[in-house]
């Protein structure tokens, strides 16, 4: 007699809710509280999207609240630093410069039929927009500009790194990410963070090389790092650059595009 087939239990899904919290400076924030079955300890983190409190399944809500209060000073400092790093949002006729490739480029505004951002021959940015263009249209034009600039950079760098690869990227996409700077999907899609366009070019180029090396080695083994070293000997300097400047770059892009 055959026994009925057993269905494998579904993996537990992280539970999410929001808890209000008051910082030392009196500012009220919403903290994303996540009960994650994979978590082994209580963890508090902050990125451009806000604060996140992660709880393992065994942790009580009371212990989570206590952890928040114990780290109130740290949380206040993180939000204060983020405010400084982020800068102002994109504003028509008010924003006079934009970050690009590790520099701040001057920008002027003009009316026109289409909403777009271009670079003049002298390196000045020119933002054209009709009077009817709202914030969403301006942000979309800025995102399109950064992506076009990123594709131009990748187009210049990619050919010199293709030699010796077992395959080429299936496609390259740009998107906004919270922590990663690049990733390589199993199907060969290479994703790059749009905030790389705000970084110095050598840092952007390093991320591209890093992800290309994953076409040869999917992990971060010694063989992988030897490949990175061979193709981009200055990778340690760029990694240090991201440790020092990465959070500010992501916060700046978020401020510009989030409105």
- Which segments are poorly predicted (pLDDT under 50) over 5 or more consecutive residues? 1-5
Mean pLDDT: 89
Query: Percentage of helical residues?
Result: 25-40%
The beta-strand count equals: 11
- The sequence of SSEs as H and E is EEEEHHEEEEHEEEHHH
Shape call: globular
Descriptive notes:
The protein has 259 residues and is α/β, with parallel strands linked by helices. Helix content is 37%, strand content 23%. It is built from six helices and eleven strands.
Compile the SSE list and pairings.
Elements: E1 15-22, E2 28-35, E3 43-47, E4 50-55, H1 61-70, H2 72-86, E5 97-100, E6 103-110, E7 116-119, E8 125-128, H3 135-157, E9 171-175, E10 182-184, E11 189-193, H4 201-213, H5 222-231, H6 235-258
Helix pairs in contact: 2-6
Summarize the structure.
Helix content is 37%, strand content 23%.
What keywords describe this structure?
11 strands; four-stranded mixed β-sheet; globular; alpha/beta; 259 residues
């Amino acid at each position: 007699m055959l026994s009925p087939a057993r269905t494998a239990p579904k993996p537990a899904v992280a539970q999410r809710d929001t808890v209000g919290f008051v910082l030392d400076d009196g500012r009220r924030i919403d903290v994303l509280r996540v009960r994650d079955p994979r978590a082994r300890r209580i963890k508090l983190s902050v990125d451009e999207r806000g604060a996140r409190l992660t709880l393992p399944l065994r942790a009580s809500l009371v212990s989570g609240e206590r952890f928040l209060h114990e780290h109130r000073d740290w949380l206040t400092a993180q939000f204060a630093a983020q405010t400084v790093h982020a800068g102002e949002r994109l504003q028509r006729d008010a924003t006079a410069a934009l970050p690009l490739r590790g520099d701040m480029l001057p920008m002027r505004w003009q009316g026109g039929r289409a909403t777009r951002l271009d670079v003049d021959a002298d390196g000045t940015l020119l933002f054209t927009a009709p009077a009817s263009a709202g914030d969403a249209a301006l942000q979309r034009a800025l995102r399109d500009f950064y992506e076009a600039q990123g594709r131009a950079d990748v187009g210049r760098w990619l050919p010199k790194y293709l030699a010796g690869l077992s395959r080429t990227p299936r496609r390259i996409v740009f998107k906004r990410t919270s922590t990663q700077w690049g990733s390589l999907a199993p199907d060969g899609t290479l994703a790059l963070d749009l905030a790389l366009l705000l970084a110095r070019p050598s840092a952007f180029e390093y991320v591209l090389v890093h992800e290309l090396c994953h076409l040869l080695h999917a992990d971060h083994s010694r063989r992988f790092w030897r490949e990175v070293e061979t193709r981009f000997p200055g990778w340690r300097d760029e990694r240090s650059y991201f440790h020092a400047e990465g959070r500010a770059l992501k916060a700046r892009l978020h401020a510009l595009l989030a409105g």
